[in-house]
Design brief:
Layout (H helix, E strand, L loop, with lengths): L3 E4 L2 E4 L11 E3 L6 E7 L5 E7 L2 E7 L8 E7 L2 E8 L5 E3 L8 E3 L14 E4 L6 E5 L4 E4 L4 E4 L5 E5 L4 E5 L3
Parallel strand pairs: 2-3, 9-10
Antiparallel strand pairs: 1-2, 4-5, 5-6, 7-8, 8-9, 11-12, 12-13, 14-15, 15-16
Length: 172
Amino acid sequence: NADMWFKDGNVGIGTGLGSTPSANLQLGSFGAANQEFRIESAGNSYFSILTTNGVQKIYAGGAGTQSNEMAFYTSSSGTESEHMRIDNSGNVGIGTTSPASKLHVAGTVQVGVDDTGHDVIFYGATSGKYLQWDESSDRLEFRDSVSAVFGDGAHLHIKHDGTDSSILNSAG
């Protein structure tokens, strides 16, 4: 068949590849706008690597009762471990198999290494209100009208409103 080539231990499948595949397994149809490599099982559960109109995608899909989730595993000494999952809702879990939010990390998160860190910003529900770890000055900064509350909210409250600063101890 002219759409399948074998050369020097390499296999090429697809039109337009020529008679000399450049990888151990090369799939494609050069010149086509849409291409797909799909691994499919009974029940239409599948994993695809595809190009659609020049956009590259990795896709896990299924029909009926299939979960449509994607999980990433490693294996050591024959023991398989899941380390990351993207669930049906688009939630990403690292260190958890059931992420409860858009990004759920079960474990330590590290930003930067020693003196090569990066700023970390936590945004609130209101535009312009956030707190930031400023790596260049090694300090936690609160934007105007953002509070630091310690305890259950009724103990220590620190705030700067843009003009004045206050420290409140309303515990009694």
